[in-house]
Amino acid sequence: MRTSLRLGAATALTLLITASAAYAENIKIAYIDPLSGPFAATGTNGLHQYEFAAEKLVNEEGGVLGGMNFEIVAFDNKISPKESLIQLQVAIDQGIRYIVQGNSSGVANALTDAIEKHNRRNPDNRVLFLNYSAVDPALTNDKCNFWHFRFDAHADIKMDALTDVIAENEDIKKVYIIGQDYSFGKAVAAAAVSFLGEKRPDIEIVGNELHPIGKVKDFTPYARKVTASEADAVITGNWGADMLGLGKSIIENGFDGPIYTYYAAADGITAAFGESGKGTLKLVAEGGDNPPDKEKAQEYIRAFKEKYPDGNLSQSRITNVVEMLAQAINEAGTADDVVAVANKLEGMTFSDGLWSGELYMRPQDHQLIQDVHIYGHTDVEAPFDFDNSGYGLKIEDTITNASADIDTTCEMERP
């Protein structure tokens, strides 16, 4: 009996040590985004996309550095900058070196400031901020820092593309601008006014207003102002529940012109608009053809939908983050030295990823340069639709290497 007990304990200890070693070899990536509250659907779908990308594109391919896996660790920030800073510290205390976040530029601004201060004070425990969707231009301009990399086209780049299309439409004489009252919403409005003024000074801005983010339950008063203005087109940077509420209300109140958006797709939005969105909803985003031209990408979408039947692969930039980070770590030969990894991300040209098109991480401001498309909401066959609705996105216009020569005010200090 004693011998049996000793062997059992020894075996258990061996298994524990083995499991701990395997766990320690994982490269942890902190996902700090909303997993509760009004934007929980957006945050949860993003989490699933990160988990799936890590598993399929890295771990099942042998990992990095000879076998180390990516592990996504979720932190619910409740879309609050204050809560995000708390979760950031928890992640750092857990030894996590890589932070990803994308929902809300207000959160991103808080995180980039905190990470820059942390890294300055803790040179032996630095972290990188991989921003996949917060598009306030300031983040790669006046507020840029070495530790922040943006994988989405920022608001000015997208507005430059959108207004190219609007400028070519001679039927558009009046435009109404409306958005969420925070840094990103203000950036969208300012860019729209600036670019339209340059490209079509004859267009009249008949409305330019902001509403509280995540707090409006009934958008009817805003929609009535849009229709009363006799606008020919609407521009909004709204996302999540605010995009759905605003867009539905505008259409239901009789507006039938184009609504140019940044985030009017997936997470229940596509299904909710359905037939009413056809010919009206336009979206500016990265990505590619739908279905994608690479068979590997088509298989990836099918596998994702099999695992997450109610999920959507709505953000191709998430796979770009995962694949480019893996390449940078392999090239640096380390995951612990984030300066070495950052130096590999800087100036990286990446064209061997899941999606078509060349990506370039511009070194002077850490802004990813890529093709930007204008999509229209229309009929799409499964599994390439969104929300299992029979509707999705199709490319209507493409701007190659969008705003590759756009000016930046970034004056980056490197370690």
Automatic annotation (TrEMBL):
Residues 1-24 form the signal peptide. Keywords: Amino-acid transport, Signal, Transport. The keyword Ion transport does not apply. Gene3D superfamilies: 3.40.50.2300. Residues 27-375 form the Leucine-binding protein domain. Pfam families: Peripla_BP_6. It comes from the Bacteria. Belongs to the leucine-binding protein family. This is Branched-chain amino acid ABC transporter substrate-binding protein. The lineage of its organism: Bacteria, Pseudomonadati, Pseudomonadota, Alphaproteobacteria, Hyphomicrobiales.
